[in-house]
Amino acid sequence: MRTRELADLLSAHAEGLNAGRDLAGDLLAKQPEAAPTLQPLLGLARRAQAALRPVEPSAAFVSTLKAQLTRPAAPAPAPAPAAARPSWVVLALAGVGGLISLASAVLFVSRYFSGGARRMRTAL
After folding, report:
1. CB-CB contact of 17 with 49 (8 Å)
2. Which residues contact 73 (CB under 8 A, 6 or more apart)?
3. φ, ψ for residue 90 (rounded to 5)?
4. Where are the domains of the chain?
5. H-state helical runs in the chain
6. How many CB atoms within 10 Å of residue 38?
7. Tens place of pLDDT for every residue, the chain, 124 residues?
């Protein structure tokens, strides 16, 4: 039996149980070749239906829940303060580091084009 057919039979059985009718006999008669697979599943569905009972919440629970859901929301927490700006010392050090990087790049390029790099390549 295909999975889709089995699902349809179990769905029909569940709908019957919800309506107060047990259609297990009718379903097994329609599909006798599926009885070995279907019978335990229908029994399990019957036992699950018997175990499930409708539950009504108490009036106190309902009123407490309604009060919690209808009260105004707590204000959102204040956003974290923005990070403090770096001091002038940090900015000065960053500028010096940038100048050193620029000077080293200029030195490298000037040596490369002046032939210093060719001498190094021939030495290797």
Report:
1. yes
2. none
3. -65, -40
4. 3-51, 88-123
5. 3-18, 24-30, 35-51, 59-70, 88-114, 116-123
6. 22
7. 688 888 888 888 888 888 888 888 888 888 888 888 888 888 888 888 888 877 889 999 999 999 999 998 888 888 877 667 778 888 899 999 999 999 999 998 888 888 765 555 555 5
